[in-house]
């Protein structure tokens, strides 16, 4: 974090790789607008009245999702050379308190409420003017910055190999694929949480393989780098992951340059 933060100033500036925003945030974390609108036309209800009500509800949901994505992207600004994105946080105290509260397990709304309590208790006007939307934007800034740091680690000359652990699950009716990465940083074997990424498609081996490779390509800019360092994949015992011929691990093994371990 200290690589990105000048603690002597109240304003914090983060710099983030183009691929993290353009691929991971825009395409993998959210449906693109065409996919969202396409879902409006997929409703098949026989009763005309129910069909009209269902279509109206889906259109409102689609509009809401498009508006959410548009608001999220307002956080990230292209620099003058169009070589990277930047995020400016105008109130560093807000940012640090937000991260402290969220990492304790508080929701975004609870975090905003606690900062308001701190403002009134300490008579600190600087802590005013925060809501759950601001909290969510601060967390997004931190997540993208941490992904940027992981890119730096993966590209470092001392990192000659890494392994990945992955598992699909459902949280609040939303399908996600959770990934961790293991690599030796200096003299320490580090196990880092990489991402919990939403899955909009069915949990087939092909879809999971495409999701993993698109994510790794975004982290490394090119397929060549991660394929040359990917040495093992740890999974649960699901057939989708472990099938000998067309499972996720088998597909990844075929994509890498060197023999890969299956764990």
Describe this structure in words.
Strand 4 (162-171) and strand 5 form a beta hairpin. The protein folds into two domains: 12-149, no CATH class; 156-262, Nucleotidyltransferase, domain 5. The chain starts with 11 loop residues before the first strand and ends with a strand. Strands 6-5-4-7-8 form a five-stranded mixed sheet. Strands 1-3-2 form a three-stranded antiparallel sheet. Residues 1-7 and 43-47 have low confidence and may be disordered. With 263 residues, the protein is an alpha/beta fold. Helix content is 49%, strand content 21%. The chain is globular. It has helices spanning 18-28, 33-38, 48-73, 92-102, 108-122, 132-155, 205-220, 223-229, 239-242, 248-255; strands spanning 12-17, 77-78, 84-89, 162-171, 174-185, 188-198, 230-234, 261-262.
Keywords:
263 residues, alpha/beta, Nucleotidyltransferase, domain 5, 2 domains, 5-stranded mixed sheet, globular, disordered N terminus
Number of discrete helical segments: 10
Order of helices and strands: EHHHEEHHHEEEHHEHHE
Task: State the shape.
Answer: globular
Q: Classify the beta-strand content into a percent band.
A: 15-25%
**Distance separating the two termini:** 32 Å
| Helix content, binned percent | 40-55%
Class inferred from helices and paired strands: alpha/beta
Strand order of the largest sheet: 6-5-4-7-8
Mean pLDDT: 80
Low-confidence stretches: 1-7, 43-47
CA radius of gyration is: 21 Å
**Could you tell me the number of beta strands?**
8
Please give the largest β-sheet: 5 strands, mixed
How many domains make up the 3D coordinates?
2
């Amino acid at each position: 974090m200290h690589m990105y933060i000048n603690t002597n100033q109240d304003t914090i500036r983060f710099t983030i790789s183009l691929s993290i925003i353009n691929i991971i945030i825009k395409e993998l974390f959210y449906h693109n607008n065409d996919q969202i609108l396409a879902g409006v036309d997929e409703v098949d209800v026989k009763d005309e009245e129910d069909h009209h009500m269902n279509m109206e509800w889906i259109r409102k949901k689609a509009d809401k999702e498009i508006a959410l994505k548009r608001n999220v992207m307002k956080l990230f600004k292209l620099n003058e050379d169009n070589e990277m994105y930047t995020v400016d946080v105008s109130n560093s105290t807000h940012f640090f308190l937000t991260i402290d509260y969220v990492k304790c397990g508080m929701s975004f709304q609870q975090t905003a409420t606690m900062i308001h309590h701190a403002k009134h208790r300490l008579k600190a006007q600087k802590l005013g003017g925060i809501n759950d939307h601001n909290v969510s934007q601060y967390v997004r800034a931190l997540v993208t910055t941490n992904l940027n740091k992981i890119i730096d680690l993966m590209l470092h000359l001392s990192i000659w190999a890494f392994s990945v652990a992955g598992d699909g699950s459902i949280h609040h009716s939303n399908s996600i694929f959770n990934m961790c990465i293991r690599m030796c940083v200096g003299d320490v074997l580090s196990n880092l949480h990489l991402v919990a990424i939403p899955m909009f498609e069915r949990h087939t081996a092909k879809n999971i393989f495409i999701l993993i490779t698109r994510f790794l390509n975004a982290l490394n800019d090119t397929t060549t780098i991660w394929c040359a360092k990917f040495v093992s994949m740890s999974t649960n015992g699901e057939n989708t992951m472990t099938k000998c011929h067309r499972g996720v691990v088998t597909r990844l093994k075929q994509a890498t340059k060197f023999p890969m371990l299956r764990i």
